[in-house]
Write a structure and sequence with these properties.
The complex is a heterodimer. Chain A is mainly alpha-helical. Chain A is built from 18 helices and three strands. A three-stranded mixed beta sheet of chain A has the order 1-2-3.
Chain lengths: ~500, ~525
């Protein structure tokens, strides 16, 4: 396949994209306690501006432009440089758009539950988005590592928000897992890559990779493993424990963590590393693809099985996230064009569906103060919008048409077929995908069915329970509608994904 | 063999050439604080004494900018060079000069001192005159050590640091000040006695001269080099301090007043690592090569030991003190990799450690002034009541754990690049130290920022304290994001040092075959 090199355009628009969330955070901090409306206003304004900035770059990038902007030249081969290519855009678009939804939603949630320290919460929220956008727009491993770590630090106060024993315990687990893997695996990986290649800059296509042909294969394999586990935000087992632990956070944080900032930062970084540092050709040559696909296949199945056992709704969703994230990595590791497309587009598909599910969980909590799946029987009749959205989003998780998840599953299956033609070993992945679909049905379908068709619990009828505030219901309906829209009209993201794969 | 070594040495000696300088800039930098200390005796009033100390140190800092401006980074020669006979009968000279290795350390010293004065403005409430005199005498000695080119001058200044530091801890220190000051004194003295023996041995080997550049790259026998190296090593390893010679450090740090800890961490510890670079590599290259692996592993041991011990501390000062053991382990690790990345990383990491740890000690001093406690548990949940304090603390802590974008990351990165080029296993093990650094600093931050109910009885940083910390904050990001100006001054000197070191190894191995 012939790869067309992109036209590199030096543009400060990337700097603006980075400064907007930072300014938003500053605005939130300054308005602080004095004026909650201005505080929330500044984060919503920043979100809208960021989204417009990112969207404005899309068409040029589809036409073969790659934006680049160097901030600091640090050492030879190491710089703080931003880039926007098709791959960045997938992530930047969802992060910036979902920030708008999340900003409205968290306003409703935090005010609805009268949470403390809302200024700190909103500041850190904006800073986390700043970090996520930074990861999306990194031009090299150093920049990505910087923003990756930045996200870990700024989301810590969000996870520990309630400041009780449980929150500190969860937050401790969160930060220990994430910084230990980043420092223990990514830092040496980054240094070794620098020692071997003399640079940390990503190439412009996904095929060539960074390593010279004479690099020892054990070294490349070791670095590959370091990257798979080092970006522990990707939730690949066995370094996934931080995710359920972080469930102690308020629901908007969980939504942000699971759909936008944190886990997607992890998966995005992992895929960026696999495709751009190692490259499809090297992964193919060293046969790293299919074994990794099987390895993360284990996470897909195992996390689904654990999700089945969880009664706490957020915990169930957390394990569902662990499982779904590995779809993305699995797709990329198939190393066939359609497989990679299926994996990468799931970054977006999963984001919209999962944020809907978390928004629903939060709305249910605010309206009823119920956290467990077993307590939701009959609630769907009281909160039709919330549970309707939940039902649709869970269809996306299952992979049923016409919701976004179907597109993923379709291309993943096509990709697996392609891969199994080249390497018969890959055939088993079809079984993983099918088994996981059935498991998803098993842990999502009962929630919806019980909510709409189950009996009201005896003795405590749902009197006075109605939908959560509009500030929460509208964002979740929007996120849900988009899930459906990109299930029917997947071009918006598919174009970018195809651009990543074909150059 | 002798023939080839001699021809080589001729070449080597050319590397230590010097550029004559008529301005006596280094002499002024060394003696202005001392003169200032003399004048201090007649300055009346405590407030005036503080102001005078600030004027002297600040003036010296500004004057040292002339070094930066006039420094020629394209040559490895000694610059701002001065040499006049001192004690003619013993061939002792007053010789000073700097190169790319010492320049940054001198600037670090002159810039840290005004901050120390500012940081102890209200911290020290008794015997202010004497305190400031001690600080000024320290400055003279410290600047002098970094530019001395005569071993007697070096040794005199080296010993001159002992007394004021002893007094700083012993008079203005905490409850166990006597124990700590004596321990500090005895350890350092033990090291310097060995140093003196080595100096005298070199004096007799070198035709009765104490001139340091003449001692470099000479064909000393292996056994002589080993003995001299061991003597050097003991003196410098205690000063760094390297594991297992570090036990004086936590005691001294905990008991020392804020400014004392800052000087100790920012400058005094650097003397050891500076000694390794300035003396061990060029004077005893064969022994350094032969024993380098042991020192390398001791560094790794120090990194791990410092990290694990820091993790277990409940006293903030002890935590930072043990973290210093770990950080200085990284510096010695870089030096004993004998490659460009490692040594340059080590030098910039010395500066970084001076900035970051100095700032952290200043901050602990500031909080100690308010609460008279250094326990982490007494300072929980300060984020609400002391927002400025915690902002500074967060940034310096992140710098200390090597967060990308801050100064320490650059140093750690370069050292580990050098480490992975030289000895993958040692570098791999020392990564654990980097993980531990994140663990103990984040643990500290977690307590100080969030946990507990917070305190309403203490006030946030005042203007003077914020001004004290601000320059350090600027350097954290400056070195972290644009280290080029700082790295540029050392490239040629480090290259020259390593070229000489490696060609001596080559000559020696050729001679063996």
């Amino acid at each position: 396949m012939e790869i067309i090199a992109p036209t590199i355009v030096n543009s400060s628009i990337l700097l603006w994209a980075l400064l907007i969330p930072l300014a938003g955070a500053l605005g939130v901090f300054l308005f602080g306690k004095e004026s909650p409306n201005f505080r929330e206003g500044s984060s919503i304004l920043a979100a809208v501006m960021l989204c417009c900035t990112v969207v404005s770059m899309r068409s040029a990038i589809l036409n073969g432009v790659m934006y680049q902007y160097q901030l600091f030249d640090i050492l030879p081969g190491v710089s703080l440089t931003l880039r926007a290519d098709a791959f960045s855009m997938i992530f930047a678009l969802i992060a910036s758009f979902l920030w708008i939804c999340a900003a409205f939603y968290s306003m409703g949630y935090m005010r609805g539950s009268n949470e403390h320290a809302q200024t700190r919460f909103n500041t850190c929220f904006a800073l986390a988005i700043f970090g996520a956008i930074g990861v999306a727009f990194s031009d090299n491993l150093f920049t990505m590592y910087l923003f990756y770590e930045f996200v870990s630090i700024t989301t810590y106060p969000l996870v520990a928000h309630h400041q009780d024993e449980e929150a500190f315990e969860g937050a401790k687990k969160y930060i220990v897992y994430l910084t230990t893997t980043a420092k223990g695996l990514l830092l040496p990986a980054m240094i070794l890559i620098y020692v071997i290649t003399g640079t940390l800059d990503f190439p412009t296509n996904i095929y060539q990779g960074m390593f010279p042909a004479d690099t020892e294969s054990w070294m490349v394999t070791m670095l590959f493993v370091f990257c798979l586990f080092g970006f522990a935000k990707n939730g690949v087992m066995p370094f996934h424990h931080w995710l359920p632990g972080a469930m102690v956070a308020p629901t908007p944080v969980s939504a942000l963590l699971h759909a936008v900032a944190v886990v997607k930062v992890g998966v995005f970084s992992t895929c960026r590393a696999f495709l751009y540092i190692f490259g499809v050709d090297t992964m193919d040559r060293l046969n790293l693809g299919i074994p990794t696909a099987y390895f993360v296949g284990f996470t897909i199945i195992m996390a689904s099985v654990i999700a089945l056992t969880k009664d706490n709704l957020k915990a169930r969703l957390a394990y569902s996230t662990v499982s779904q994230l590995s779809y993305i990595i699995l797709g990329v590791c198939l190393l066939t064009p359609h497989g990679m497309e299926g994996g990468l587009v799931h970054i977006a598909n999963h984001a919209f569906s999962k944020i809907t599910l978390f928004f629903c969980a939060g709305a249910i909590y605010i309206a009823t103060h119920k956290k467990n799946v077993s307590e939701l029987s009959g609630l769907g009749r009281k909160m039709p919008w919330t549970f309707g959205a939940f039902a649709i989003a869970s269809l996306s998780m299952i992979g049923a048409p016409p919701v976004a998840g179907f597109v993923t599953k379709w291309w993943l299956l096509v990709g697996t077929m392609e891969a199994s033609k080249i390497d018969p070993m890959a055939t088993g992945i079809i079984l993983i995908l099918l088994a996981s679909t059935l498991l998803n049905v098993a842990y999502f379908a009962p929630i919806t069915i019980k909510a709409f068709f189950g009996k009201d619990p005896e003795g405590e009828p749902y009197e006075g329970i109605k939908e959560a505030p509009l500030a929460m219901v509208i964002p979740l309906c929007i996120a849900c509608s988009i899930s459906v829209y990109i299930g029917i009209q997947p071009q918006f993201f598919m174009d970018l994904v195809v651009k990543v794969v074909t150059g | 063999m002798l023939q080839s070594q001699e021809t080589f040495i001729d070449k080597g000696l050319q590397g230590m050439e010097f550029i004559e300088y008529s301005g006596h800039l280094l002499t002024w930098l060394i003696f202005i604080p001392l003169i200032g200390a003399g004048i201090m005796f007649i300055v009346p009033g405590e407030e005036n004494q503080r102001r005078w100390a600030l004027v002297v140190t600040l003036g010296n800092a500004l004057l040292s900018l002339k070094l930066w401006a006039g420094f020629d980074s394209s040559t490895a020669a000694l610059q701002f060079y001065e040499r006049t006979p001192w004690v003619k009968s013993l061939n002792i000279d007053y010789a000073v000069g700097i190169d790319g290795i010492s320049l940054l350390l001198i600037l670090l010293t002159t810039f840290i001192m005004p901050l120390c004065v500012l940081g102890s403005w209200t911290y020290i409430s008794k015997r202010i005159k004497e305190f400031m005199i001690c600080l000024l005498v320290m400055e003279t000695a410290m600047v002098g050590v970094f530019c001395a080119l005569d071993f007697v001058l070096f040794y005199v200044l080296w010993e001159m640091m002992l007394m004021p530091m002893y007094l700083l801890i012993g008079i203005w220190g905490g409850p166990r000040k006597k124990y700590a000051s004596i321990k500090f004194f005895l350890y350092t003295l033990a090291g310097s006695v060995m140093l003196l023996v080595a100096i005298i041995a070199l004096y007799f080997q070198n035709g009765h001269s104490f001139y340091i550049p003449d001692m470099m790259n000479q064909p000393y026998s292996m056994s002589f080099q080993i003995w001299v190296f061991l003597a050097f090593f003991l003196a410098f390893a205690i000063k760094v301090p390297m594991f297992p010679f570090h036990t004086w450090l936590p005691a001294a740090h905990v008991e020392a007043p804020g400014a004392g800890s800052v000087i100790l961490a920012s400058v005094l510890l650097k003397m050891g690592t500076y000694g390794f670079l300035r003396f061990c590599l060029p004077i005893t290259p064969l022994a350094t090569h032969a024993l380098g692996t042991y020192v390398l592993w001791l560094s790794v041991a120090g990194i791990l030991y410092g990290g694990f011990t820091a993790l277990a501390q409940s006293d903030m000062k002890k935590l930072i003190a043990y973290s210093s053991v770990g950080h200085m382990g990284f510096v010695t690790l870089g030096i004993f990799c004998f490659n460009k990345s490692g040594v340059e990383g080590a030098i910039i990491q010395m500066v970084n450690h001076g900035i970051t740890t100095g700032a952290l000690f200043l901050m602990i001093g500031m909080i100690y002034e308010r609460t008279h406690s250094r326990e982490i548990k007494d300072h929980c949940g300060l984020a609400y009541s002391l927002p400025i304090f915690v902002t500074f603390l967060t940034i310096f802590s992140l710098s200390s754990l090597g967060f990308p974008g801050t100064n320490s990351f650059i140093g750690e990165f370069l050292i580990l690049v050098g480490g992975f080029q030289f000895n993958k296993i040692a570098a791999g093990v020392s990564i654990i130290g980097a993980v531990l650094a994140a663990a103990y600093m984040l643990r500290l931050l977690q307590y100080v920022l969030f946990k507990g109910k917070g305190r309403d009885d203490i006030s946030d940083l005042n203007f003077r304290e914020a001004v004290t910390l601000l320059p350090l904050l600027i350097f954290v990001f400056w070195i972290g994001l644009a280290p080029e100006p700082f790295m540029n001054v050392m490239h040629v000197s480090v290259k020259n040092l390593l070229d000489q070191y490696h060609s001596i190894q080559t000559v020696a191995s050729l001679a063996l075959h």
